[in-house]
UniProtKB/TrEMBL annotation:
<dbReference type="InterPro" id="IPR057727">
    <property type="entry name" value="WCX_dom"/>
</dbReference>
<dbReference type="InterPro" id="IPR001034">
    <property type="entry name" value="DeoR_HTH"/>
</dbReference>
<feature type="domain" description="HTH deoR-type">
    <location>
        <begin position="2"/>
        <end position="67"/>
    </location>
</feature>
<dbReference type="InterPro" id="IPR026881">
    <property type="entry name" value="WYL_dom"/>
</dbReference>
<dbReference type="InterPro" id="IPR036388">
    <property type="entry name" value="WH-like_DNA-bd_sf"/>
</dbReference>
<dbReference type="InterPro" id="IPR051534">
    <property type="entry name" value="CBASS_pafABC_assoc_protein"/>
</dbReference>
<dbReference type="InterPro" id="IPR028349">
    <property type="entry name" value="PafC-like"/>
</dbReference>
<keyword id="KW-0805">Transcription regulation</keyword>
<keyword id="KW-0804">Transcription</keyword>
<dbReference type="InterPro" id="IPR018356">
    <property type="entry name" value="Tscrpt_reg_HTH_DeoR_CS"/>
</dbReference>
<dbReference type="InterPro" id="IPR036390">
    <property type="entry name" value="WH_DNA-bd_sf"/>
</dbReference>
<dbReference type="GO" id="GO:0003700">
    <property type="term" value="F:DNA-binding transcription factor activity"/>
</dbReference>
<dbReference type="GO" id="GO:0003677">
    <property type="term" value="F:DNA binding"/>
</dbReference>
<keyword id="KW-0238">DNA-binding</keyword>
<dbReference type="Pfam" id="PF08279">
    <property type="entry name" value="HTH_11"/>
</dbReference>
<dbReference type="Pfam" id="PF13280">
    <property type="entry name" value="WYL"/>
</dbReference>
<protein>
    <submittedName>
        <fullName>Predicted DNA-binding transcriptional regulator YafY, contains an HTH and WYL domains</fullName>
    </submittedName>
</protein>
Length: 326
């Protein structure tokens, strides 16, 4: 959602000699604090924007009124317009705004910026998977609008058990996780996450959102994702791994792997999470060349059972190499 605002601020700076944080806040229906943070972000991103202090001050682009954004380098212009291309996940509104903005660029940059917007295509579908793209959830736009305007909503929601409820929430942000969309919100019970495809109704109010001063959506989502992962994989298996096997474990288990310190014999202590002893043992059975599972006993018992079955099924089928006939 922030990309929408930054592009809108760029367009405002194009149209006016200078803008104040209050004007930006009023135009975009955000707080002055958010407006100042976004203006600072433009400068940190390399856009030639600077502030004029004192009475009559505000924010300007280098070059004065109706600047041609000549402060942008060719590389910065290309990077900016990559987000407008078909590989981008931004909204059609952002793409349209950026394509309008291309006409404000200096002539030498214009062709490269336009080429950048069509230079990359990303196909998220795996080979052999369905070509049907999931539709955005029904109430995504309404919730996005509530987040941007900073207003509370009365939310109808159907949980996993198909129980319908209604509550007033403070929308703080929206996250796309794979094909699913989530609303991060503050409620009377604390911070909660709602799958937007389970939202049954959205009724915006005029009451402002109470947003924690130190709230950061990206950091908040990392905490939520870590907690969900722990709930999905509550079982922990402890093991010692040969150093050359750590890379294989990282590829195979990802966030389910925790790497500890070295043991006295040079191996590495690791913790691997799962949700079932039998399934986890099956995943670990093929790693015996460099992994020794030390616990829990249930996982070790399943590994021993797997080994017994493998020996019984394949051990007697081994054949000695034939000798050549003379």
């Amino acid at each position: 959602m922030r990309a929408d605002r930054l592009v809108a601020i760029l367009l405002l700076l194009q149209q006016r000699e200078q803008v104040t944080a209050a004007e930006v806040a009023r135009e975009l229906e955000i707080s002055e604090r958010t407006a100042r943070r976004d203006l600072d972000a433009l400068g940190m991103a390399g856009v030639p924007v600077y502030s004029v202090q004192g009475r009559g001050g505000g924010w300007r682009l280098v070059g004065g009124a109706r600047t041609d954004l000549s402060g942008l380098t060719a590389g910065e212009a290309r990077a900016l317009f990559l987000v407008a291309g078909p590989a981008s996940a931004v909204t059609p509104t952002v793409r349209a705004a950026l394509r309008k903005l291309v006409h404000a660029l200096p002539e030498p940059f214009r062709a490269q910026a336009e080429a950048a917007s069509s230079s990359l295509v990303m196909d998220p579908q795996r080979w052999g998977s369905s070509r049907v793209a999931p539709r955005p959830p029904r109430f995504l736009d309404e919730l996005q609008d509530a987040v941007i305007r900073g207003v509370q909503v009365r939310l109808g929601y159907v949980d996993r058990a198909r129980t319908g409820t209604e509550r007033t929430v403070h929308p703080l942000g929206i996250v796309a996780k794979g094909p699913s969309w989530y609303l991060v919100a503050h409620t009377e019970a604390g911070r909660r996450t709602f799958r937007i495809d389970r939202v049954s109704s959205v009724d915006p109010t005029t009451d402002p959102v109470h947003r924690p001063e130190d709230f950061d959506l990206a950091e908040s989502w990392r905490e939520i994702a870590d907690e969900v992962e722990r709930r999905r994989t509550p079982l922990e298996a402890y093991a010692r791994c040969a150093p050359h096997g750590i890379g294989v474990l990282r590829m195979g288990f990802g966030a389910r792997l925790e790497v500890g310190g070295a043991t006295t014999d040079g191996r590495i202590e690791v913790v691997i999470r799962g949700n079932d002893e039998n399934k986890l043992a099956g995943e670990l059975a093929g790693l015996v060349d460099y992994l020794e599972v030390t616990g829990p006993p249930g996982v070790r018992d399943h590994l021993a059972a797997i080994g017994t079955v493998l020996v019984a099924r394949y051990g007697s089928q081994r054949q000695r190499p034939r000798t050549a006939e003379r």
